[in-house]
Write a structure and sequence with these properties.
Elements lengths: L2 H13 L2 H8 L3 H15 L4 E2 L8 E2 L1 H21 L8 E6 L1 H6 L1 H11 L4 E6 L2 H10 L4 E5 L7 E15 L19 E3 L3 H10 L7 E3 L2 H7 L6 E5 H8 L5 E3 L7 E9 L6 H14 L6 E2 L2
Parallel strand pairs: 3-4, 3-5, 7-8
Antiparallel strand pairs: 1-2, 5-11, 6-9, 6-10, 6-11, 6-12
Helix pairs in contact: 1-2, 1-3, 1-4, 2-3, 4-11, 6-11
């Protein structure tokens, strides 16, 4: 088996469909399917269940065992690649407040444990400011939502996660209809321009009474009864660790939040960035609903 085949297998696991995995790897679906078939032939068994009418790939028992080994192989390969490279002494990371609050702390800990010689600088920064900081050399790596068109800045898909409805009250009945959600009780966060457009369409342009952007404010209001919010699944999972919230089924579809990584377009491979992204992949394994695109 080859690195390419193992990389393809992991991409399918993380994206859950061959089509999305092919987009992530910038190959055709037929090429990706051929790689998978070659790998399964060499191993002597199927790694994924093939179900009629379903595009989503689910692992067989053998596939689950192979996935654990493949993740360890991927991590070891990354470490081997760094043997003859000098790890930069300083890595500067910026992120959206929500990603920095609920997802990245574990990544920071993993990175510092593996690379204690590298100093880590962390800042909250929105997309446009982050892209300008990347371009000016003030930031090495930034996490953002939405499309960035700043010249000299490379944008790479990182992960996508579903939005969910959460509430601190018990008066909402499932599946929740849009008309059952009072805007006066919403804690509104503009997660992305796509989300803002979806929200306007859902409520016919009506505006919520309360708008925030900092996660500590979200936590503050959700400590009170009868508030509700649309949040990414990682935020919902993070909040549920410290307070009783309900995750509610809806009678309408919710959008995905797509997060990407910004870095300097003219910079060669940065070992510290590659190592940080590997720590991110490992941390995201604890979130089965998040689609990893790295």
């Amino acid at each position: 088996m080859t690195n390419c085949e193992i990389e393809s297998f992991l991409a399918i696991c993380r994206c859950r469909t061959v089509s999305r995995a092919a987009e992530t790897l910038y190959v055709t679906q037929s090429s990706l399917s051929t790689r998978l078939k070659t790998l399964e032939t060499e191993l002597g068994g199927a790694l994924f269940h093939r179900r009629k009418g379903s595009r989503e790939m689910t692992l067989t028992e053998a596939g689950r065992r192979f996935y654990e080994l493949a993740v360890r192989y991927e991590a070891l390969t990354q470490e081997m690649k760094q043997v003859c490279r000098q790890m930069p002494a300083h890595l500067r990371v910026s992120s959206l407040n929500s990603v920095d609050t609920f997802l990245l702390p574990e990544v920071y800990e993993r990175f510092l444990q593996k690379y204690p010689e590298t100093r880590l600088e962390i800042r909250d920064m929105e997309g446009e400011a982050a892209s300008l900081s990347i371009r000016s050399g003030g930031t090495d790596l930034a996490f953002t939502a939405g499309k960035i068109t700043e010249e000299g800045v490379r944008q790479t898909p990182a992960f996508a996660e579903p939005m969910v409805l959460i509430s601190t009250g018990s008066d909402l009945r499932e599946p929740v209809q849009p008309e059952a959600l009072p805007l006066r009780s919403e804690v509104y966060i503009e997660w992305s321009r796509q989300f803002a457009h979806w929200h306007q369409q859902l409520f016919d342009g009506a505006r919520p009474q309360l708008r925030i952007s900092i996660m500590s404010h979200l936590q503050q209001f959700l400590d009170r009864e009868h508030f509700w919010a649309f949040v990414p699944v990682s935020v919902a999972m993070g909040l549920a660790k410290t307070r009783p919230i309900r995750r509610l089924a809806t009678a309408f579809a919710l959008p995905m939040r797509e997060i990407s990584i910004l870095s300097a377009a003219d910079e060669g491979e940065n070992p510290a960035i590659a190592a940080f992204c590997q720590c991110l992949r490992e941390a995201l394994a604890a979130y089965p609903e998040i689609e990893v695109r790295l």
